[in-house]
Structures are given as C-alpha cells and as structure tokens.
Amino acid sequence: MCGTTNSEDARAAVQAGVDALGFIFVERSPRFITVPKAKEIIAGLPPFVDPVGVFIDHDLKEMVEIARGIGLAYLQLHGKEDPDYCLHAARMAGPCKIIKAFRVGEKSEPVDFIKYNNVVKGFLLDTYVKGQAGGTGETFEWQLVERLNLQRPVILAGGLRPENIMEAIRAVKPYGVDVNSGIESSPGIKDHGRLYELIDQVRLTDSDGSCS
Known about the structure:
By secondary structure, the chain is of the alpha/beta class. It has helices at about 5-15, 35-45, 60-70, 85-95, 110-115, 145-150, 165-170, 190-205, and strands spanning about 20-25, 50-55, 75, 95-105, 120-125, 155, 175, 185, 190.
C-alpha cells in the first residue's frame, strides 16, 4: 500500500496483511509525508512489514540520510534516475534496496530496463501519462509487459482497485502489486473497507494459482 500518511491507515494495512507500506517524500504529491511523521509511523510497524520511501530525482545524499534515519527497507525511485544513481544509492544506503519505477506505454522497450538489471531489486510498472511521474489512477495495457521480457521481479501499479485487481494479476502475474488511489476516500486517506476488499481479492487470486 502506497501513499501512507497516517497511523490509522498503517494499522489497517498491517491488519489486512500487506507486506510493505509506501511513504511519499515528494512535496508536490497530495500524499506527501514529512520525515518526522513517517519516522513515527515506521517506528510502530511490526516485523516483516517493509517501509518503502518514494522519491523523484532527489538529492542522493539527503535521500540516503532519510533512509538511514527512519529505517527504510527500500527506495522506490520514480524519476529519471540513471543506473549510476541507482548503484550509488544502493551502495550508500545499504542494506536498503532499490526499486526503479517505470511509466509503461506503447513506446516502452526492453532496452529501457536492461541497463538497470544489475543495480535494482525490482521494477515497478506504472502508467505513462505525459507530464506526470505516477499516481495517475489510470491503468495501462497489461499485455505490454510480456514483450518487455523483464529480468527483475515486477511490481504492478497504476489504477489498481478491488474491481480489477484479479484481472490485473492474472494478466501480468507480477511478483507484487502496488495500490494507492484505488483504495482511497480522498488523496492520502485510505478507505479501509476497500483496502480489505482488495486484499481479499488478491488472496483469492493466489489461491487459484494465478500467481504461480
């Protein structure tokens, strides 16, 4: 679950069984969270729930300081960060791991991803919308993923909600899914009923073998 902004939503997500919580450190985002508030929420997380920091072309040194200071497990990079940036981030922020986000559209090609294979732990696939770095609440053509021949674990994002999550998982067979606006009552405020509904749908898809 991404776009975590308050302790109540974090507790609901943990109770629902999510594996990771995303915290967006991008000031222009309606789901922006301050470092002290994120630190407070992360301090209350139980074992095996990973805190993920979302950044866009952030100053490398400052980002690493944030990661170390609040105990992030992953850095999720949504900007134009090149492989060298990702490599330096991984080395400086260890044991924090790197996830590189890509906006997928008709012009996406395997070469866009290949150069990151040896420096990131996974690829997050979001929807390409001109002028936006993510969080659009729109889906992309899931059939595009197969032709990209991705060599790292795939985390599917972009417009996922209870009504389409089973279809999305069956189409892409991702390692994981990233949800945000599809389970919100307003930006940054989660609808706990929709959160539980989505998690139930994911579990049903797991049980029918769609993720194997």
